[in-house]
Amino acid sequence: MSQKTTRRLFLGATGSAITLSVATAMGRSTEQDEQGPREAAFERNYDPPKFKPSWAKEQVNRQLLQDFVIFAHSDLAMVKQLLEREPGLLNGAVDWGGGDFETALGGASHMGKHDIVEYLLERGARIDIFCAAMTGQIDAVRSFLTLQPDLIDAKGPHGFSLHFHAQVGGERSVAVLEYLQSIKQVELKPIPFLRPKAEAEKQSDQ
User: Fold this and answer.
1) 23-41 burial code (b ≥16 CB/10 A, e <16)
2) Which whole-number Å values give the CA distances from 146 to 150, 163, 177, in the listed order?
3) Which residues 6+ apart lie within 8 Å of 112 measured at CB?
4) N or C: which end of the chain has fewer CB within 10 A?
5) For residues 178 and 163, what is the distance between their CA atoms, to the nearest angstrom?
6) Residue 63 has what pLDDT?
7) For 179, phi and psi rounded to 5 degrees?
8) Nearest 5°: phi and psi at 73?
9) Which of 111, 29, 33, 34 has its CA nearest to residue 76?
10) Residue 161 pairs with which residues in a beta bridge?
11) How far apart (Å, rounded) are the C-alpha atoms in residues 184 and 154?
12) Backbone angles phi, psi at 161, to 5 degrees
């Protein structure tokens, strides 16, 4: 088997594994992904609000927003390309099901993608406590937890905790992780997708 063919097979298998892992983390099956999102049935059992919203402008396309949030997990070039095409994507949130809302900033934050996070913040993305934890903004994290101590148990997209976000932040967020552990000690489990990155950096130094 040629080197080119072997590489193609490897990339294909890797891509499938990543897709399955993300779907599992979001509590969805690949079959559900192919079917697309389904809106829950709803019927008012209360009086409608008196305020009537104006729908003069088109909403951001759902497929475009979904792609943008997915790319924000790993692909800065595509994030830039899509945001230039549609600035309204910046703070858009996708409901992956059951109220699991995720923005591009949220996706980049729990993946530890500092470059994507910094770009989104420069463009005006709304920082939250999870992003602050990942980027090592300890004063901001302290302020959030002083205002509302129960946020120590808050969950971000896909249920990822504050401790998890501080873990994926790497060296920049060591102080934040120590601070969070001083408030509530939790078991810090290894994060699989960080291992290849560390190994790659080690090999590049050799």
Assistant:
1) beebebeeeeeeeeeeeee
2) 9, 17, 16
3) 134, 168, 169, 170, 194
4) C
5) 9
6) 97
7) -65, -45
8) -75, -20
9) 111
10) 155
11) 12
12) -85, 170
Does the reported pTM lie above 0.85?
no
Longest dimension (CA), the chain: 69
| Overall size of the chain counted in residues | 206
Q: Give DSSP secondary structure letters for 128-150.
A: -HHHHHHTT-HHHHHHHHHH-GG
| Tokens 């899509």, residue located | 82
Q: Return mean pLDDT, the chain.
A: 85
Which spans in the chain are helix H? 3-25, 30-35, 62-71, 76-85, 104-110, 114-122, 129-134, 138-147, 162-168, 174-183, 195-205
pLDDT, tens digit, 9 for 90 and up, residues 95-145: 999 999 999 999 999 999 999 999 999 999 999 999 999 999 999 999 999
Distance in angstroms (rounded) separating the CA atoms of residues 124 and 87: 10
Distance CA 14, CA 117 (A): 25
Measured CA to CA, the distance from residue 80 to residue 169 in angstroms comes to 22
Cα 141 from chain centroid (whole Å): 18
Residue 181 · residue 163 · CB < 8 Å: yes
For the CA atoms of the chain, what is the radius of gyration?
A: 19
Give the other-Cβ count within 10 Å of 21's Cβ.
12
